[in-house]
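Before the break, one more example. Copy the sequence into your notebook; we will annotate it together after we see the structure.
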Amino acid sequence: MKKITPLLALMLLASCNTVKTYYQVYKTQSQTVKSEGNTIAFEDANCKINYNLWAESGNAGFTFYNKTTEVIYLQLDQSFYVINDRAYDYYQNRIFIDTNHLATKTSNTVGFSQLGWLSLASYSTNTLSSNKTSGVEIIEAKVVAIPPKTSKTISEFQINQTLFRDCDLLRFPTSRQTSTKSFTEQASPIRFYNTITYTKGDKTNKVNNDFYVSEITNIGSKDAFSQERKTFCNQKGGGIQNVFKTAAPDKFYVTYTKTQLDTWKY
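Here is what the structure looks like once it is written out:
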């Protein structure tokens, strides 16, 4: 019997700890939001609402542009994010700290979980710098005023944080291989929409922007990216950057990994 030397033991341990990165890419479709270049958008006579879902776990937020010559008031206390028939409030009655010498960032995260639909993560406040302990408390506004010909971005919720698994979806596709599963709107595992309420003058308007996941693809990192030279005004620089091949405003992704101990095919 061969003796396991310390060096051999280290090599075996290192091989077991090898980690490969994969991406689960979600493609969405919508009946109310249309593709426009680098964004997808809804538009009516008063406003244009732009979306770009592309982000880790997805970004369900939106940018509201006021097309008119009057101030539009976005009613956050009457606006909601809904995923798989469960609603979440855009107005959450939060208090923020504002001071020239104490910079803080308060955040919360919402994501879809197969083990319990939507789960709210706890709020966290990170102190970026501190020279004194006093500050001005700012109460979150129920109503956001948007001046004419300007826009404001509302971003609160993520779409999905959990890897979707299915018997028709290979969990770890081999190199040069992808695994894709398509869904109808009725069979989609994730359906979400924003209900946005705004007022202009004495009239109240409600907009529903709906989405559903129509396709899920698993792909290895080696096949997910291409290398491209950095460009600016059609001039190519010396730097190389990795570009996600299938990035698009109607898509988002979840990152996951594989080690030597992962044996699940699906």
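The helical segments are 6-16, 221-224. The longest helix spans residues 6-16. Try to locate both features in your own notes.
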